[in-house]
Write a structure and sequence with these properties.
heterodimer, A: 267 residues, alpha/beta, Rossmann fold, 12 helices, globular, B: 227 residues, Alpha-Beta Plaits, Pectate Lyase C-like, 2 domains, 16 strands, elongated, binds adenosine-5'-triphosphate, binds magnesium ion
């Protein structure tokens, strides 16, 4: 196996990086992939909470980097998916405890054993961002349909291009079809028009996301949730499948606009 | 082979050193040191413009190459790069930093006389989209083959030509030249300035994009079809 390292980043905070990382991890594991998730948000860890693994943490990323724990011992196996692992972030240290080179070495150790290595990146463009991006084979940029979030995503894409990690693919999170239809929210093609990169997936706003994250059961395990289904589709696309984009409503403008963006774009 | 990795040119009273973008950093700095040592009498005392292309150079790496040059009697004065990391490192060391691709005056017979006038009207050519957060400043003209996104900014003493969509900020004639112009294939800047004049785009400008040119007439900025 040569695992693929995928870093989930955004620029602006709170747009859904951790939610996306957790859900893609679970969805990929459900699809039979061997997956490890790395929480690179040192000092503000929360990927463990969203996955319901907080109480199992013994060692963390910094313990591994500083040689206090073996990588094998620090990995936490998920309760329901034996092929899903988490390497949690340290709670008490800051981002300078880890270097980009450390992250590259760590991922090189993990690559032979996993299909996917997903890295949850902290917000911002400083050290934590560079740590998370250094080992990436592919970068996903999460954004919301808001001008400020798109602006930050654009900035991140510029930085990724300068580091030769770009341009990456886009996950557009928290879209509200009825607001888009009324012209009150940026539509997916408004966002891609500015950013000029491919969309990997569109995740609707879903009131079940918050409670599911709180209870440690990622939304993609809820088969009735449209957000959950969207994450499942993104996971399949990451695996190279061509999955058509779901219509977010039965008829009308929004679906047509989607059709326009994705025809030609492939999947 | 070595000659392709490092290119050293005499430019005016200084040297322009261009380093290969992809070669291992430790390798290329070692090569550079030995190249300079071989011809130390020739290089000594020169001000250096270092062009690293797209390579991201960290602050510690920048410090060590500066020291390497210092020890050999060379002064690192300007860094050219289009990696933000490199530009930030240069900034942190108080070096003058600029996007690369400022064309160096071609030396004739290896000894071109320095021409300050031509130097002053040099152009910067950028072959990609300028994204949010990116600032380009030029003592001459700026040409962009790509879009200028919201949040990006261009300041030029001369003209600004954008072969793409202009949606960020542009200031042409930044030192007061009221003859400066701004051209774009689709002109919806966040803000557009020429010399001391300023304009913004109408909020609802959603007509079919067409190439336009902005210039000063009768004391304000006018925009017309660019033909
Ligand atoms: N599609 C969605 N629908 C509803 N709520 C969502 C959705 N996606 C994320 N959220 C909620 O938004 C909040 C922020 O999400 P999350 O923690 O994943 O963002 P983040 O980018 O990791 O933030 P940070 O930058 O702080 O690390 C959380 O409360 C999460 O449950
Ligand atoms: Mg997070």
């Amino acid at each position: 196996m040569t695992g693929k390292v995928v870093t989930i980043t955004s620029g602006k905070g709170g747009v859904g990086k951790t939610t996306t990382t957790a859900n893609l991890g679970v969805a990929l594991a459900r699809l039979g992939q061997k997956v490890v998730l790395i929480d690179a948000d040192i000092g503000l860890r929360n990927l463990d909470i969203v996955l319901g693994l907080e109480n199992r943490i013994v060692y963390d990323l910094v313990d591994v980097v500083e040689g206090r724990a073996k990588l094998r011992t620090a990995l936490i196996k998920h309760k329901s998916f034996p092929d899903l692992y988490l390497l949690p972030a340290a709670q008490t240290r800051d981002k300078t405890a880890v270097s980009p080179q450390d992250m590259i070495q760590l991922c090189n150790q993990l690559r032979p054993e996993f299909d996917f290595i997903l890295i949850d990146c902290p917000a911002g463009i400083e050290r934590g961002f560079r740590n998370a991006v250094a080992p990436a084979d592919e970068v996903l940029i999460v954004t919301n349909p808001e001008v400020s979030a798109v602006r930050d995503a654009d900035r991140i894409i510029g930085l990724l291009e300068a580091e030769r990690k770009g341009p990456g693919r886009l996950v557009l999170n928290r879209i509200k079809p009825d607001m888009v239809r009324k012209g009150e929210m940026l539509a997916p093609d408004d966002v891609t028009d500015i950013l000029g990169i491919k969309i990997l997936g569109i995740v609707p706003e879903d009131e079940n996301v918050v409670p599911s994250s709180n209870s440690g059961i990622p939304i993609t395990l809820n088969d009735n949730s449209r957000a959950g289904k969207a994450f499942h589709n993104i996971a399949r696309r990451l695996m190279g499948e061509r999955v058509p984009f779901m219509s977010l409503e039965e008829s009308g403008g929004f679906f047509k606009r989607l059709g326009r963006i994705f025809s030609g774009g492939g999947g | 082979m070595q000659d392709q990795l490092i290119n050293i040119k005499g430019v005016g009273d200084g040297l322009r050193i261009t380093l290969d973008e992809a070669e291992e950093w430790s390798n290329i700095t070692a090569l550079l040191a030995s190249r300079i040592d071989q011809q130390s009498a020739f290089f000594s005392g020169a001000r250096v413009t270092l062009d690293v292309g797209a390579r991201p150079v960290r602050k510690d790496e920048m410090m060590s190459i500066k020291a390497l040059l210092d020890r050999r009697g060379l002064t690192l004065a300007v860094v050219l790069s289009d990696s933000q990391t490199t530009l930030d490192s240069a900034d942190a060391l108080d070096l003058r930093a600029n996007v690369s691709a400022v064309p160096a005056p071609e030396p004739v017979d290896g000894l071109a006389p320095f021409n300050p006038e031509e130097e002053g009207t040099a152009g910067v050519m950028i072959r990609r989209t300028l994204r949010s957060g990116r600032t380009v400043r030029s003592a001459g003209h700026v040409v962009v083959f790509g879009d200028v996104n919201p949040g990006a900014e261009i300041q030029a003493v001369g003209d600004v030509i954008i072969w793409g969509r202009l949606r960020g900020m542009v200031h042409a004639g930044a030192h007061g030249d009221t003859n400066a112009v701004v051209c774009a294939l689709d002109m919806t800047p966040t803000q557009l300035r020429i010399a001391g004049y300023l304009t913004t785009s109408p909020q609802d400008k959603r007509q079919k994009p067409r190439p336009e040119i902005a210039f000063i007439r009768d004391g304000h900025i006018v925009v017309e079809a660019w033909e």
